Amino acid sequence: MTASPSSARSCDVAIIGGALAGAATAIQLLRQKPDLRVVIVEKSASFPRKVGEATVEVSAFFLGRVLGLTQYLNEAHLVKQGMRFWFANERSKTLDECSEIGGRYLARVAAYQVDRSTLDTEVLRRARALGAEVIRPASVQKVELVSRGTQTLTVRHGELTETIRARWVVDASGPAALLARQNGWWKPNLEHPTTSVWARWRNVQDWDGHELAEKFPDWALHCHGVRATATNHFMGDGWWAWCIPLKGGDVSIGVVFDQRRVQWPEGGSLGQRLKEFLGKHPVAAEIMRGAQCVEGDVHWRKNLPYYSTRHAGDGFVLVGDAAAFIDPFYSPGMDWISFTSYAATEMILAQGRGEDVSMLVEKHNRDFVRSHACWFTALYKDKYDYMGDFELMRTAFLLDLGLYYLGVAGLLYKQGSKALAYGVFITPPSVPVYHLMRTYNRRFAAMARARRARGTFGRMNDAQRFMFGGFTFERDGANAKHILKALVRWGVLEITEGWHSWFADERAPRPLLAESPASA
Questions:
Q1: Closest CA to 22 of 137, 121, 145, 151
Q2: Would you tell me how many other CB atoms lie within 10 Å of the CB of residue 286?
Q3: pLDDT tens track for 147-185
Q4: More exposed terminus of the chain, fewer Cβ within 10 Å: N or C?
Q5: Residue 506 and residue 442 in contact, taking contact as beta carbons nearer than 8 Å
Q6: pTM above 0.70?
Q7: Which helix (H) or strand (E) holds 16?
Q8: What is the b/e burial string over 99-137, where b = at least 16 CB atoms within 10 angstroms of the residue's CB?
Q9: Which fold has domain 5-54+117-189+307-372?
């Protein structure tokens, strides 16, 4: 059955996708302008679990203080205790012999381990309670964009095909990236060919339980906080894996690898191959010794990163994964949702006030295209070349985290939600920081390649434990001290061994490695 033209529905804003990015945009719009007619078209009858279980400081601020979810997050999800990294080489045979990076104490700034299926459900429920109309399950077949005019969506809902007309379309369709693909703006990031395999697991070992404390007593005493509710990372040469606990007992464990460096094993079920792959890392082997993956909850996604060359027009805007996806490492996805959703809301409301949004649209496109490109280049380009080396990663992590606290998260906690309008790397003060990050990231990758050629890669991946107190937003000089120490350590590395790679060809191909996760 097809709806007649007279039965077409009209609204002010049509949102494609009802998960976090879309529902959060609806909430922000309706809180500031309750009389807006907002329609959300969601393709699923219920939300599946997905990659993206960990928040960091920016997304925690957005969820808690912008969307007002703090009480809900504390009741339905787990407080995150920072990030931990585990390294191995041929000398590390057991968990306590592997090198570790992580906090000694509990985290100081809020972040959460979230089950995205339940989080998405709750955010959509709140959007509906504020007045958004939700159509689900329904799929958007086509979108006709008209600058400064009425946008037309063709929506399939059961056996009914209907038309929705709106002044604004918000594309929150996630990796489907409906508008970007439909209009030829979608581009794969060929500089960063990564694949992810993940699953939900049960009967995973308790990091802080009696059994491991009795088996490895010295190891247990090194951490005075909680290891279990941190995002624990198993690190390898060309790959990393996450271990994230979820409320109720399930644990999300998955791997991301650079296709240029790692050959994924063949044979057997996907869950079995994932466990066997990780089982070659001593820490993962110990933690997953009795674990079983949840049947039907094992996933594979190839060629993860992509971006759109256009983010907005007078009548449409892309938010979250519909605009770009970089990498799951450091959990930037929900930060990206925070920035893009907030900026989209401001632009739509400005047009509703009668402002000429042409300049805002131009700025939005310029800022977010630049933000994504700089974010990728500064943090992720060739990072998989060195992330499996404890010594290099320790220095990079301190710089990455310190500069994130100093120049990104700190702005939110000092200036409030208006700082979300700035994005990342798009303000003049952030330009020197971008160049610094891009430089040390490139240099560590080059040093790692030189180490690999000399057979010294991962030389400190055993018997090392770097436990630090963490960063704050205080102006007491402690943050600068940590960053300065890391910069000095970088300088020492350049003097002692960096010259090996000063004139190396950075375009040289990366040979595929063996399947073993351990660094040799």
A1: 121
A2: 18
A3: 999 999 999 998 899 999 999 999 999 999 999 999 999
A4: N
A5: yes
A6: yes
A7: strand 9-16
A8: bbbbbeeebebbbbbbbbbbbbbbbbebbbebebbbbbe
A9: FAD/NAD(P)-binding domain (3.50.50)
